[in-house]
């Protein structure tokens, strides 16, 4: 029987992992650099001699180890060949960790719940909804232009809006996010923005990966909201992707209003899965509830 192992990050064979990411056409989130930047800790389940594998990000709280999905990572993939029975993988993880809240791009485990992100495969799918159409008309009346900007210009606006909208993000999350993008391979990163009188009012950050342009995050100020700037920026980046024969992917959100915004461009839902269970001791559960 082929061996299934849980390997610590420091013991990972980087060359074999990178080959697996490339050969399996896994999502951008499985890169070592991405996981190192955003996960508190991570190990990997490895099947045989890297015939297959999955990243396992985890936290340690009061000595309790729990699997989790790091902020700014949508989901990890099982890459390569899968064992005939995933029960052995599930048992190994439940033996090592006391809880899980892991997003996977495949349905691997029994307790999995479907989630959705949105994708436009080609230009024929770009169909603007009524709200998108109205907003883009507002933008056109401003006479402003969409231009390429630097990561250093884009991040302050985006982080400022994230801090206002997502209250459970901590300062360390923003530092990890900024470090990830400021040091990412520039040739595969795109930033676009809309300025008026040298003030940036809307910005978006995208990463090219496996013939896909992935929308990472965007930000818009009050002026931009009133004049439809974000809708115009999204339409522009979708067309930018399709002109280069890449599909366009939103990062995904469990917030229905964000999903509806994405669908307003003709995007289609794509399913991924959340694996959630909790065998933590009673005192730990109480402390976590009090902390929230």
What does this structure look like?
A hairpin with a 2-residue loop joins strand 3 and strand 4 (64-68). The protein has 292 residues and is an alpha+beta fold. Strands 1, 2, 3, 4, 5, 6, 7, 8, 9, 10, 11, 12 and 13 form a 13-stranded mixed beta sheet that branches. The chain has ten helices and 13 strands. The N and C termini lie far apart (44 Å). The relative contact order is 0.16. Helix 2 packs antiparallel against helix 6 (171-182), helix 4 (130-142) crosses helix 8 (229-243) and helix 5 runs antiparallel to helix 6 (171-182). The protein folds into two domains: 4-115 and 272-291, Aminopeptidase (3-Layer(aba) Sandwich); 127-265, Aminopeptidase.
Write the layout of secondary structure elements.
Elements: E1 4-8, H1 14-23, H2 32-38, E2 41-47, E3 52-61, E4 64-68, E5 79-80, H3 87-96, E6 99-104, E7 112-120, H4 130-142, E8 146-148, H5 151-165, H6 171-182, E9 189-196, E10 199-209, E11 212-220, H7 222-226, H8 229-243, E12 247-250, H9 256-263, E13 268-278, H10 282-291
Parallel strand pairs: 4-6, 11-12
Antiparallel strand pairs: 1-2, 2-3, 3-4, 3-5, 6-13, 7-12, 7-13, 8-9, 9-10, 10-11
CATH level-four homologous superfamily name of the largest domain: Gcn5-related N-acetyltransferase (GNAT)
- CATH fold name of the largest domain, please? Aminopeptidase
Number of helices: 10
Distance between the termini: 44 Å
- CATH class wording of the largest domain: Alpha Beta
